[in-house]
Amino acid sequence: MSVTMPPATWLVLGASSAVARAFAHQAASHGAALLLAGRDTEDLERQAADLAIRHRVSATPVAFDARDLGSHAGFIADCAARSTGTLNVFLAFGVMPEQAEADRDPATAAAMVEANFTGAASVLAALAPVLEAQRGGTVVALGSVAGDRGRPRNYLYGATKAALATYLQGYAARLSRSGARVLCVKAGPIDTAMTWPLPRLPFMATPQAFARSLWQRAERGAGSVYLPRVWWPVMGIIRLLPTRIFNRLDI
Amino acid sequence: MPDTMSAPEAEAVPAEALRGRGWKQAALQPWGRNTTAPCIAARPERMRELWAALDVPEGRALLARGAGRSYGDACLNPGGAMVLTERLDRILHFDSATGLVVAEPGVTFADLLTVFLPRGFVAPVSPGTAFVTLGGALANDVHGKNHHLAGSIGEHVAWFELLLPDSRHLRVSAESDPELFRATIGGIGLTGIITAVCLRLVPVPSNALVVRRTRMPDLDHFLAGFAAAAEASYSVGWIDALATGATLGRGVLEVAEPSESPVAEPSPRSRSFPIDAPEVLLNGATVRAFNELYWRRAPMEGRQQVLPYRRFFYPLDTIHGWNRMYGKRGFHQFQCVLPFGPGEMALRRLLETISASGNASFLAVLKVMGREGVGYLSFGKPGYSLALDIPARAESPALFATLERITRDAGGRIYLAKDSLLSAEGFAEMYPEAHRLQAVRARVDPDGALSSGMSRRFGLG
Ligand SMILES: Cc1cc2nc3c(=O)[nH]c(=O)nc-3n(C[C@H](O)[C@H](O)[C@H](O)COP(=O)(O)OP(=O)(O)OC[C@H]3O[C@@H](n4cnc5c(N)ncnc54)[C@H](O)[C@@H]3O)c2cc1C
Ligand SMILES: NC(=O)c1ccc[n+]([C@@H]2O[C@H](COP(=O)([O-])OP(=O)(O)OC[C@H]3O[C@@H](n4cnc5c(N)ncnc54)[C@H](OP(=O)(O)O)[C@@H]3O)[C@@H](O)[C@H]2O)c1
């Protein structure tokens, strides 16, 4: 068990995602209690049982919809009341419909912006006072390398992640004054339901390997981090490519 | 997943039919890597997605897959649709008073060991690798090194839940629906998708076994050694499949009992087999040298050691992807069970045929099996079980036809989990209760939605 991260509660938002599951197992294996938030409550019940049996921790499902903005204040109050020790948050929810689908159907586009950005901003806003009051805690949010530079294949998705990253910069600065830490993860491809139908992607990480290194970062770091680490130099190059060349690439 | 690759050459399903539905083109191999089957594949992360996967694009034939540890086409569905169950791996319930555990089908024996050995429980029956899933274990009614006492896994299943192609979801026990129970245990995935398993774990005094290894100079001594070990909790024999003449059937007999005192277990370290081995590495000389060494390691008078369960149950698991050792063409495994009595002669003939074929094989595994399994297609029956790997070569089908002939003549049975070459006639003779499975399938899957490479090979549809 680490000194920097004593047993506490981790609230996992979007807990049905494979990355979120793997992260919850990391947290549970370090003795943390879990609040599993999402829409598929039947699955969250199963996961709660699994975490409790494997790691002998308390794990509780909580209903949560990122797009139901009006519910967020009550939801956070409820989670704060249920948590033991320091409350920490892992924000993992997000959707990635095809760009063409979002172009065709404005409702799809709006729903993605609402889930990935508006919903995230809203729930984080409700959370901030809790973190300030407890004078500590960690927030880890899943951004994406897709937010670093818009590509034809998924620029609306990328834009929502870029917006989230920018939001988190200010959010981190605000919370640092009360001792809470915020980590924005610029994730490369992870082998999950989101990427399963896509053609094979480079440097694909398993959810377990990803969560393991993320846990290590979360224990120490704040700010933003590329994971897997190889994306740091890769995105460094991609961001610097002259537009003329970038536009001709099929990436 | 190392054994999935994109397959542009696969008979393509139009991308439009797959879009947004969790399916993709894939090409899957069995553990023996002796063939590659183009198919479409879905990998549900949770039950809701599993249900969605029943809506198969273009009405393709459907089959579940676990960890793909079957050596042949039991876990393949060429041209069909595969539902990968590996991500459905939640442990749902455990009762330490009874040892009953309820788990999703993708939970592996490795999971069970990690979670429950520290609490004093192990799986009642365990195959030779911990990567096997519970769904796959039920579907092949797997056995372990305690078959002579414990039978195969189906005997330890209190109930399972089964999802039928038409979305009906049933809890099935030997009492509630004996036919469906017996059709699904050992039913190679042909009755539906197992969604939960309630298994009876057994209490053990520590994390370790007292293992005794003894060198056996020839087959007669080996069989006598097994007879003397009839009461041992676990027993398994490793045969040097290249030994001939007076040393035919020489090897090492291992017997084990639960240890009262624990051992310190080094944290599991694993290595991977990095590449497809060039085939020249695997010639008679290297294999002979390896087998000789292995045999000499165990002293004549026997040696006793206290080993953690993991090391005794799963000796191969520390090297990930060892199946790549056989090179790009892959390999076949031959496993049969031969009845006591007439089987002894056949055992000898099998070993002679294999060593005469010059097909290099590493160690062969010899076990004693105790009784028939509960499934209509269960492999188990009283007798000797012999298993060995044979590199895939042009002459493999001919060699396997000979091995099949010898097995049939002795009233033996070939294990479907390992098989890719058994003939349909041989299957019908060895598995006389297959028609009962077919009757159950007509009831639970009247439209014939479920099928596999193996079921079509045997003419089961
Ligand atoms: C190194 C090694 C050692 C082995 N030792 C032994 C041994 O000692 N004893 C023994 O009995 N076997 C042994 N085996 C074989 C292995 O136990 C079986 O092949 C087992 O069925 C593999 O399980 P799997 O999870 O990999 O399933 P797969 O191989 O993927 O599938 C096996 C079958 O199960 C079906 N299936 C899988 N999941 C489901 C589900 N959820 N619902 C319905 N059907 C399903 C599939 O359709 C298929 O027919 C060994 C294999 C290896 C590689
Ligand atoms: N996979 C990658 O390669 C990759 C790369 C970079 C970043 N990411 C990010 O990683 C996160 C996890 O994604 P994943 O890959 O694991 O994909 P995923 O399986 O699709 O997970 C997304 C999760 O978000 C939840 N969700 C979606 N809309 C929601 C809403 N309105 N309210 C509450 N929860 C909602 C979903 O749960 P329900 O549908 O059950 O509600 C699901 O659990 C996402 O933010 C994704 O953008 C992924």
Describe the protein.
The complex is a heterodimer of chains A (251) and B (461). Chain A has 251 residues and is α/β, with parallel strands linked by helices. Mean pLDDT of chain A is 95; it is low at 1-5. Chain A has helices at residues 18-29, 41-55, 72-82, 99-104, 106-134, 155-176, 207-220, 231-240, 243-246, and strands at residues 9-13, 33-38, 59-63, 87-91, 138-144, 181-187, 223-227. In chain A, α1 (18-29) packs across α7. Chain B has 461 residues and is of the alpha+beta class. Among the domains of chain B are: 91-204, Uridine Diphospho-n-acetylenolpyruvylglucosamine Reductase, domain 3; 208-260 and 269-421, Vanillyl-alcohol Oxidase, Chain A, domain 3 (3-Layer(aba) Sandwich), CATH 3.40.462. Chain B has helices at residues 15-18, 47-52, 109-116, 134-139, 147-150, 178-184, 219-228, 284-297, 309-313, 342-357, 396-409, 424-430, 434-444, 453-457, and strands spanning 23-28, 37-42, 62-65, 81-84, 91-95, 100-103, 121-122, 157-163, 169-172, 193-200, 202-203, 208-216, 234-240, 251-258, 271-272, 303-308, 319-320, 331-338, 363-369, 383-391, 413-414. An eight-stranded antiparallel beta sheet of chain B has the order 16-12-14-13-19-20-18-21. Chain B has a five-stranded antiparallel beta sheet with strand order 5-6-10-8-9, covered by helices on one side. Chains A and B meet through α2 of A and α2 and β5 of B. The complex binds flavin-adenine dinucleotide (FAD) and NADP nicotinamide-adenine-dinucleotide phosphate (NAP). Chain B: Keywords: FAD, Flavoprotein, Oxidoreductase. Chain B: Residues 33-204 form the FAD-binding PCMH-type domain.
